[in-house]
Amino acid sequence: MFTNRLPIAKLAGAVVALAAVIAAVMLSINWNGAEDSTAAPKIDNLLNIMIVVSSIVFAIVVVALAYALIAFRAKPGDESDGEPIHGNTRLEIAWTLIPTIVVLAAGGWSWKVLNEIEETDANHLTVAVFSQQYAWSFGYPGKEYAYSQGVLHVPVNRQVVFKMHSQDVIHSFWVPEWRIKKDNVPGITTTAVVTPTKTGTYQLICTELCGFGHASMRAKVIVQSQSAFDKWVEGLKEKVPPDLMVSVKQDTETNPEPLERAVAE
Ligand code: CUA
Question: Average model confidence (pLDDT) for the chain?
Fold first, then answer.
């Protein structure tokens, strides 16, 4: 067994040092930009933890590979075969079990964070989102399905439940500063829950390749005070057109939340 000859302390030191450097560099980069919803810090936190875990795994692999390449390289002119060995059962159990535990823990934590994000409060505002090649429009069930095209207004610090519908192909709803991304799928209603925490102007970006105009499929998002929002909704002249209402009603059949509740609000 060559195990006894391994300089364990030095290798462990190299792993710790390399992992620390990689993690420090990766964590210093602001990957996702401003955090303007309650979900954003939670998601970024999760990402940061995954960066640290990945840095450790990467460092272990790189240090082991580098050590194997240097310590066990063939002497010049050595044409003999490698030593026939049967592997190491204990080592194989360890390198199967540990990653399994790490992945399950990461999955469990993500599940917990997602549950927190998707928990709805009683005071939420429902907004219907309509997507089609290549435009966004919005309906406000609380205001008899008042309708706006290309511009979404929402109040700040209030939970918004988006009920999403697509008229043609799959689109995807994404406001980067809110982090939340959700596919809009023809025939069913999908739901995203967001609580914006800052007022301002944002961009809603389609983040599912949906055809020729995908890159320009955007809408303006304005997060404002509840009173400014109420005033804006009051001022909307149009109602959601009947063909879009058809999709709202149709989709309801596969939607766990009945239409009455959405309309009643
Ligand atoms: Cu719609 Cu991309």
Answer: 90
Ligand 1 atom at minimal distance to the Cα of residue 184: 1
- Distance between CA atoms of 50 and 225, rounded to whole angstroms? 35
Q: Is 129 in the pocket of ligand 1 (CB under 6 A)?
A: no
**What does the block give as tokens for 183?**
């596919």
CA-CA distance, 102 to 71, in Å (whole number)?
A: 29
Return the residue whose CA atom lies nearest to atom 1 of ligand 1. Answer: 171
210 touches ligand 1 (CB under 6 Å):
yes
- Give the 3-state secondary structure of residue 47: helix
Identify each DSSP E strand in the chain by its residue range.
Answer: 125-132, 135-140, 146-149, 151-155, 160-166, 171-174, 181-184, 190-194, 200-206, 218-224
**Digit-coded pLDDT (tens) for 190-217:** 999 999 999 999 999 999 999 999 999 9
C-alpha–C-alpha distance, residues 228 and 187, integer Å: 34
Confidence of residue 264 (pLDDT cuts 50, 70, 90): very low
Instruction: Give the whole-angstrom CA distance, residue 77 versus residue 97.
Output: 40
- Cα(112) to centroid of ligand 1, in Å? 30
Distance (angstroms) between ligand 1 centre and the Cα of 147 equals 20
Q: 75-134 pLDDT, tens per residue?
A: 888 888 888 888 889 989 998 999 999 999 999 999 999 999 999 988 999 999 999 999
Partners of 200 in the β-ladder: 223
